[in-house]
Specification:
single chain; 261 residues; mainly alpha; 11 helices
């Protein structure tokens, strides 16, 4: 499959989306966004129902609607098993982009560790400059890695708790992983929905596109690798800041772009 064919299928309009200004660039293809929400939505619902069961119903199991929340938790767990596989199957022709993202998340360099070390200081002191990052920053890489490591354990322990009568160790591991996920989920949601610096990234996971200047600042290595040659003069961007340019994570230079039929 040629790169141009992938772009035509993956862009929101179903065709090439090019404009003169270049104010926005493609950050995530449809297949990436589909997989993200196929994991995120059932996981958040699963996590929320679990917190309700533990905090509200464990002290008083006879409170009303406990069975409803219990089955809602199980149903969301089943969705967490099924939906990601359906998302991957739906975009099986572009499977290499997922492999590319996995490689990016598990590849760490010194700047990633430096970014983590300076992250909180930079949040309160804008004079501190964080190191340039690739497609994912170090916090996103960490979140990605924890998810990949715990996902099969969530499924295995959840099924054991549900289907067996003696699963105390499974319950302990299941609960420990949920507690470990709390700061990662909280930080991820804060950056996506609250932080002014991180909020534009949410549009990339909803519509695919992010502001060019934002991507250039937050993911400089990735930006230079895939969009530097297409950068428009600043005056043009200011005249038409909402325009879009068709480009993205799959570039001719990218290993993930070498898709074959």
């Amino acid at each position: 499959m040629l790169l141009s064919e992938v772009k035509r299928r993956e862009t929101p309009s179903g065709g090439d989306k090019v404009a003169e200004g270049g104010g926005k660039i493609l950050r995530f293809y449809r297949s990436e966004r589909l997989l993200h929400w196929a994991i995120a939505a059932p996981f958040l619902f699963c996590f929320t129902t679990a917190m309700i069961l533990v905090v509200f119903y464990n002290p008083s199991p006879l409170r009303p609607y406990r069975t409803l929340f219990s089955w809602a938790h199980r149903a969301s767990g089943l969705c967490l098993i099924i939906l990601p596989f359906l998302a991957v199957y739906r975009s099986k022709g572009n499977f290499q982009i997922h492999l590319y993202n996995i490689k990016q998340a598990w590849t760490w360099v010194f700047d990633d560790f430096k970014w983590l070390f300076l992250m909180f200081a930079a949040a309160v002191n804008h004079k501190i400059k964080l190191p340039d990052q690739g497609k994912f920053n170090a916090a996103e890489k960490l979140n990605f890695m924890v998810l990949m490591g715990t996902y099969p354990l969530y499924i295995a322990t959840g099924l054991l708790i549900w289907l067996t009568h003696v699963a105390f160790l499974s319950w302990l591991l299941h609960s420990a992983m949920a507690l470990m996920a709390m700061p990662l989920i909280g930080g991820h949601m804060y950056m996506a929905m609250v932080s002014r610096n991180g909020r534009p990234g949410l549009t990339g996971m909803v519509h695919g596109y992010v502001p060019r200047h934002w991507a250039k600042h937050h993911y400089a290595h990735w930006y230079r690798a895939h969009f530097k040659e297409e950068e428009e003069p600043q005056s043009v961007e200011e005249e038409n800041p909402e325009a879009t340019v068709e480009a993205g994570p799959l570039s001719p230079q990218s290993p993930a772009s070498r898709l074959s039929a």
